[in-house]
Amino acid sequence: MRKLPLVFALSMFVLISCMKVEEVEGPVLSHGVLEEVEIASSDPMIGVKNAMVYLPPGYDSLDTTTTYPLVFLLHGYGWNYSFFQDIEDIADIADYMISAGEMRKCILVMPDGKNSLGGSFYTDSPFGNYDTYITEEVLSFMEENYPVDTTKIGVLGISMGGYGALKLTVSHPDIFRVGASHSGPIAFQVFLESDPITGINMMGAMLLENPVYDSTGNVVGYRIPYPPLLDQDHPLTTMMFAMAGAFSPVVKPLEEFDTLNYEFPMAQLPDGQWLGVILPIDTTAVPGDTVGLRQDVWEQWLANDVFTLIGQNYTVLDSLNTGLYIDCGGEDELFLQYHAMAVHDLLSSLGIDHYYEVFNQGPLYPPDRFPARHGTHLYLRLRESLRYISEHL
Predict the structure, then answer these.
(1) Domain boundaries, the chain
(2) For the domain 33-187+305-391, what is the CATH code?
(3) I want to staple 265 with a disulfide (CB 3.0 to 4.6 A). Which of 6, 23, 115, 276 is the partner?
(4) Is the pTM of this model over 0.85?
């Protein structure tokens, strides 16, 4: 009698093993090809840069009749052209989406936007003409070497690249039919607004990274020193210097830099002049306060601000039916969710159709364990932006 439970268990195992179990199947995957290429610039500050190119499943270099939409993928600050493949496995995402019919076959190009300050913000400046590099030199390279349909071009990016994607789209709607920003700094006035939780704005948070101590080790103030501390312990300072390199660069003799007023020489040029940056704050700036804004420099920043540019170009964007996509994590530690909200409100007030989401979770990402911070959900969000871009090309 003691053998009955074992016999019963074995019988059930055999019965269950013989039952037909309906399996959950995904699409049959077709695979594209990744190529690493070199794309030269006429600008000596850029030189020759590497780039990654994704060619979709079925691509045939001998096919002279088929053309493909082209999508630029712009990396964030501190990274380079390899980001989307090394970190997010963009080839895997594109393979799946194309195979599942979620995205049309596109050629993807991932150029390098890193300069000597860690990031160009895809803007023309003496540190490198990266707007021109993307819209002319990289685009020309792609036209000459791949069968791209130049009437169907989109761009997306993360962080600095999210800024670049929308700025390039708004500034060059004749080139880009659609742009998508993930966690981008796209409304500069938000830098001056205090975060409701900390009570400190972005300029103040930058100053907090630079305390001044007295001889006993007590903090007596905050000031960015010369030479500045640009490293992992000063991430906001480092990023703001890169933004200043894009938006408020300066070239002049070394003796004319007023380091006490946040003018910093960075590198000597062949003609003996010095290339440097000017931060948009003055000596009265303190953490959490906007009084110390240097207005002449701030106007230079606003001339490159996506929020400002939309206000100037919205009639053209509307007439061309330009696609605009914006998302950001609800707990972004750079407070960039407020940038997304500001641009969403602006576009809504102008009656411009767009995609907008400040998200707090995703599939398999419970918010209590995986809060939606800066770039943490990008692998999932890329499927949303690529789908949106595909629909608008």
Answers:
(1) 33-187+305-391, 200-302
(2) 3.40.50.1820
(3) 276
(4) yes
